[in-house]
Q: What sequence folds into this?
């Protein structure tokens, strides 16, 4: 019935005004989100003098790469970058494997003790022993000041288990399992040759979530690590920008120039530390949204 | 069960993870009732009953910490909770797929910025002399403000930067819920001659209620667990009056001053309040709206 009446005529003036207001508000939202990001990138590409005198407000002024050059001449930053890549790759691998290992059995109706196990896991979402008791465990296991401290104690996120479980539940047809059981296929074999190939979307979501989490993490490093050569980039970033420890990190000739460069370095550092995540982001956003939808169907 | 032994084998390593890194710390939390001695270890140290808790309650800082924690998270909840809902309702009205995707892509992006980078950005923008905010203030002939040195500004800085960072991400869940609303309801509204606003008011919002309630419960359940990392990074001696919360206090007393037992007691108090809040709100929601997380 509605189809017989053209939409454009039904649209009243009030409705159109309402819609225009929405477009304006959303455009402002977009501006408010984008502006700081553009400002940071432009600053990082401007000359030190332009940045410190406040001449940059939208586009780069006196384009220069001195911030980036200074950054690549700072050994701590390079070490941090290397460490972060290591933690992200290895940590993500461990996390994804462990998450699938528990999420898949939990999705199987025939799995004995499924509800009890689910309870055990979700309870840790609402109650925890706290910072100090957890620290003591890591210490008792002699993981303090080792790379393992950043890879193991936070390896599994309960939320990711829930999302993965919902995915397995809704996208692995029961009939497939029955058929393969009939053919005498073992559970391992079934997982390897049927579940995993069918689960590429959720594996992508897990990989991305854990990878972003690892790349951005700093608190575990702050409490568990002591040796500077193990520090991830985020910890170096904190020391240079937030605690303002940049002066010693560079060898610029004059004091003023050095201070200006230190200021500029902060912008370049922010860009470099965020780049890997933001570059892959537009490609993966669809998967993230999908993953969240799956998770929210049965939360 | 015998038939599926492989599945049980698979579960062992992750289960061990939860037992060692989640449950064992809960047992370690007996530290709160002990006077920890490094040589004697957790179990050898003498019991002191509730002494650590009493010390905390009698501490002059107690009320400041509880107040700061609750006000900060209350503010975040009040300001931050409705915005993603509004955002989702607005995005949902947009008919142009391109614009819709663009808004989502952009508003979602800040979620992936790390806490350290976020705080770095805040500090660069609000820096006393060279920060963008002060340059803008000076441009309009106003005096510079040391934003991060003003205790009164701390909460707003924390809350609004958080909204900037997470509103787009949080809106996705509501968008998903909106997508799930029965299309016949919209047709009925159209037939009845509902305006766009009336459609939002009478179809969209009621359709969102279950999701809103669940998210609200989860948020209230996190009131005491407010993001330690960001508060800690934004903290400085000048704004400490408003920025010292229970979690940051536990860190500085426990790990920096190695006062393990006392800090564990404070942390345990925090977790318990959190649990009580969650259970209460969940119960209330169940009675009032019939939605709950368990």
A:
């Amino acid at each position: 019935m509605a189809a017989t009446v053209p939409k454009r005529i039904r649209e009243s003036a009030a409705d159109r005004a309402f819609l225009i207001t929405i477009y304006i508000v959303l455009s402002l939202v977009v501006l408010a989100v984008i502006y700081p990001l553009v400002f940071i990138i432009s600053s990082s590409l401007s000359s030190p003098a332009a940045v410190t005198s406040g001449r940059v407000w939208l586009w780069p002024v006196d384009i220069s790469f001195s911030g980036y050059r200074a950054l690549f001449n700072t050994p701590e930053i390079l070490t941090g970058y290397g460490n972060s890549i290591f933690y992200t790759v290895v940590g993500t691998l461990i996390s994804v494997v462990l998450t699938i290992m528990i999420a898949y059995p939990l999705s199987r109706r025939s799995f004995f003790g499924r509800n009890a196990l689910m309870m055990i896991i979700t309870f840790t979402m609402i109650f925890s022993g706290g910072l100090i008791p957890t620290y003591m465990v890591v210490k008792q296991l002699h993981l303090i000041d080792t790379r393992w401290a950043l890879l193991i104690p936070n390896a599994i996120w309960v939320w990711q288990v829930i999302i993965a479980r919902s995915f397995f539940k809704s996208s692995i047809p029961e009939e497939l399992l029955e058929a393969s059981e009939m053919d005498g296929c073992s559970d391992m074999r079934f997982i390897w040759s049927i579940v995993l190939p069918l689960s590429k979307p959720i594996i992508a979501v897990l990989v991305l979530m854990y990878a972003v989490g690892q790349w951005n993490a700093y608190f575990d490093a702050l409490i568990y690590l002591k040796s500077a050569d193990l520090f991830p980039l985020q910890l170096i970033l904190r020391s240079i920008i937030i605690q303002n420890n940049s002066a010693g990190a560079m060898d610029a000739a004059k004091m003023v120039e050095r201070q200006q460069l230190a200021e500029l370095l902060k912008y370049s550092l922010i860009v470099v530390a965020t780049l890997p995540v933001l570059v892959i982001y537009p490609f993966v956003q669809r998967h993230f949204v999908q993953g969240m939808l799956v998770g929210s169907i049965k939360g | 069960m015998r038939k599926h032994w492989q599945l049980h084998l698979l579960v062992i390593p992750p289960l061990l993870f939860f037992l060692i890194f989640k449950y064992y710390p809960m047992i370690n939390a007996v530290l709160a009732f002990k006077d920890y001695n490094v040589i004697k270890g957790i179990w050898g140290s003498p019991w002191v009953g509730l002494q650590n808790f009493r010390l905390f309650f009698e501490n002059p800082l107690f009320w400041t910490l509880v107040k700061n924690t609750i006000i900060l998270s209350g503010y975040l909840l009040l300001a931050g909770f409705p915005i993603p809902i509004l955002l989702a309702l607005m995005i949902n009205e947009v008919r142009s797929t391109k614009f819709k995707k663009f808004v989502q892509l952009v508003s979602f992006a800040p979620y992936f910025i790390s806490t350290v980078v976020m705080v770095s950005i805040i500090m660069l923008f609000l820096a006393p002399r060279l920060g963008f905010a002060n340059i803008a203030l000076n441009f309009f002939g106003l005096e510079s403000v040391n934003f991060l040195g003003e205790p009164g500004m701390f909460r707003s800085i924390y809350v609004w930067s958080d909204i900037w960072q997470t509103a787009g991400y949080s809106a996705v869940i509501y968008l998903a819920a909106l997508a799930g609303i029965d299309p016949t309801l919209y047709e009925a509204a159209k037939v009845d001659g509902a305006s766009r606003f009336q459609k939002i008011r009478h179809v969209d919002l009621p359709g969102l209620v279950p999701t809103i309630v669940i998210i609200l419960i989860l948020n209230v359940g996190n009131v005491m667990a407010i993001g330690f990392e960001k508060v800690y990074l934004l903290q400085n001696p000048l704004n400490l009056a408003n920025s010292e919360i229970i979690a940051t206090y536990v860190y500085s007393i426990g790990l920096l001053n190695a006062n393990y037992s006392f800090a564990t007691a404070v942390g345990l108090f925090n977790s318990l309040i959190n649990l009580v809040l969650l259970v209460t709100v969940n119960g209330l929601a169940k009675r009032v709206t019939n939605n709950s997380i368990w």
Notes: The first helix of chain B runs from residue 5 to 28. Chain B touches chain A through 88 residues (CB under 8 Å). Residues 88 and 190 of chain B are 21 Å apart (CA to CA). Chain B has a mean pLDDT of 84.
